[in-house]
Write a structure and sequence with these properties.
The complex is a heterodimer of chains A (119) and B (259). Chain A is 55% helix and 3% strand. Chain A has a two-stranded antiparallel sheet with strand order 1-2. Chain A is mostly helical and 119 residues long. The longest helix of chain A has 17 residues. The radius of gyration of chain A is 14 Å and the shape is globular. In chain A, α4 runs antiparallel to α5. Chain B is of the alpha+beta class and 259 residues long. A 4-stranded antiparallel sheet of chain B has the order 1-2-4-3, sandwiched between helices. In chain B, α4 packs antiparallel against α5. The chains are: A mainly alpha (119), B alpha+beta (259). At the A-B interface, α5 of A face α10 of B.
Amino acid sequence: MSDLNASLESYPSVQTWYQGLREQSGVNPAADPSRLKLLEEFCRSVGLDPDEIIKACLLEKEGRDTQISIKGRRRVAQMVADFQAAAEGLSPRQRAHRGNTIRSFLIHNGILLQAGMQL
Amino acid sequence: MEFKEVVGRRRSIRYFQSWRPVEREKIQIMLEAARQASCAVNATFMKAIVVERDKLDRNTLEALKTPVSGQIELAPIHIYTYADTKAFHGAQGRLKKLVDVGALNVSLGWSHKFVDEFVWPNILKPLAENLPQSIALVAGDVGVAVCQAMLAGVDEGLGVCLTAFVPEPVKKALNVPDHWVPLWCLLVGYPAESWEAGGQRPRPPMEEIYFDGKYGTPFKADPKVTEELKTKKMLTPPAPLPWRKAEVKALAQMFGLPE
């Protein structure tokens, strides 16, 4: 991972996430800065920047449409589950919030992900 | 509930009260509605396996999930529906029985001899032996049966949703015969979302999809009928209802789902 940009919001994948939150989820992302902090924490824990996380879920081959990589998606889904589980001293709801924030980032970037109920 | 209102209230419900079991009699009512559906050659092509989510072990439930069907975890009942490609067998006898009970009549050309010497050897037997050709007919019939089951479920106050499923893990878990063709999984449970589920879904205008006499001449909807259907609740307020996003957000928080 290259050093994370000072402003995570400059990454296209984060902009896509924010746009999705505003337009599809009816959420104002600016109202809750904890989202970005959690994403930053996740990025640091896995050693990838936001765009690299999305790329890790994709299969790009020359001359073919980009597809979701089953293996890549599973790997990232596991990273999210580990990130959620690793948070000590938090209630189940708070831990679910950590994992679901990252899942929201992935889903708004078109990565199919159904982790199911987290509570 | 009046039939038109049942049609108007049906939605694809995706958030179920995961904790609330569905009464077995209500499932029986849905299956009976399916069994009574119109079906070609009186063959009940639709076969189904009713699965209680809570009787599945965790690994099996995980195996049944697809990336876009996370709601199977929320639905207490899954009805896996199939087209039975062997249901053509016995059609000859069933048709003759329909002659005997007065459903198929001589006045319209039906007789035992017609069934034995024309319908079976020239139409049904070749169809039964041609899977790609028969599957469209069979799948259509299953669709009719599933639809009746769905509407019966809505009439019982349940939420229903058709979803795709990955055939292989389901086949393995439920011991599905080889000659059953997988179609849809019907999820059933009490809705956790409001029955409106955000409003009646956008559909193209009737004039775009139905034609009058010949293709290209739109079937024009009569505004008076449209108004009557609103009164009878077949037509309900369209999506998006203003509070839908707030509702989805609240549901996501309740179930611990991402937003």
